[in-house]
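User: quick one, fold this
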Amino acid sequence: MKFFKTTTHNIRRSPYQAFAAVLIMMLTFLTVSFFTFLITGSSKIINFFESKPQVTAFFHNEAKQKDMDALQKKVKDTGRVASIKFVSKKDALGIYREQNKDDPLLLDLVTADILPASIEVSTIKIQDLGVISEMLKKSPEVSEVIYQKDIISTLTSWTNALRKIGIGLIVILSLVSFFIVLTIIGIKISQKKEDIEIMRLIGATSWYVRWPFIFEGIFYGLIGAFLGWGIASASLLYATPLLSSFLKGIPLLPVPFIFYVEVLAGELVMAAVIGALASYLAVLRYLK
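Assistant:
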C-alpha cells in the first residue's frame, strides 16, 4: 500500500506530465483497438464468403430438368466439389419473397416463371473455383455464372494491407509511448534525487525506491489503454446500426460482449508491459 500511496502522490504533483503520458498511451491503444476491430471483421467477412457457394450458375428458362441434372452430375464427378445445391424456380421465388417482404409492389410483379433455376457450388479448395466456373460457362444450358473469387481476393488484399498498416502504426506509436513514459519517469527521478538520497541514507532498499516509479508507468499504460479501448468500442457500438444495414446478410454484428473483454484484456497486458519496461529502464538509468 505504501508503494501505491507514493505513486499517487507522484502523479498528483505533476499532472501535466501524467496527462501527456496517458494521452499518448490512449492514442496508441485507440489505434490498436480500431485495427483489431477492422482486421477481425474483415477476416470474418472473408470466412463468410468462403463458406458460401462461391460459384452460382443460372440456367436458361428453356433448360430441361434432365439437362440440369446431367450438368450437376458432371460437376460432382470432377472431385473438386465440397457441396452443390439446386435452386428451382419455385425456390428462387421463395428467396425473392423473403428478401423483398417489406415491399408488396415488388412481390406482385414477380412470378416463378420469370426467375431462373440455378445451382450453387462450393469447392474443396478455393483454387478449384476457376475450373468449375469455366466448366459451367461452357454449358449451353447456363445463361450466367457469378464467381465470387474476385470478391474474396479483393477483401483478402484489403485485409492484408490493413494488417500491415496497422502493425506499422502500432509499432511506431508503441515506441513513442515507451520513450515518452521513459522520459517522464526519468524527469521525475531527477527532480526527486535529493529525496531518494535521503531514503537511501535511512536504509531504503533499491527496489523500495524503484517500485513507485514502475507502478506509475504501469498506471499510465492501464489508464491509457482503457480509455483508448473505451473510445473505440463506443464508436463501434454507435456505428453498429449503420454497419448492420450495410452488411445485411453477413452475421458479423452485433459484436459479442466477450470479444470486447478479450480485446481489453490483451491491451491491458500490453500496456502494463510497455509502462513497466519503460519505467524500469528509466530507473536503471537514473538510479545507479
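User: anything notable?
Assistant: The beta strands are 55-59, 81-87, 118-123, 142-147.
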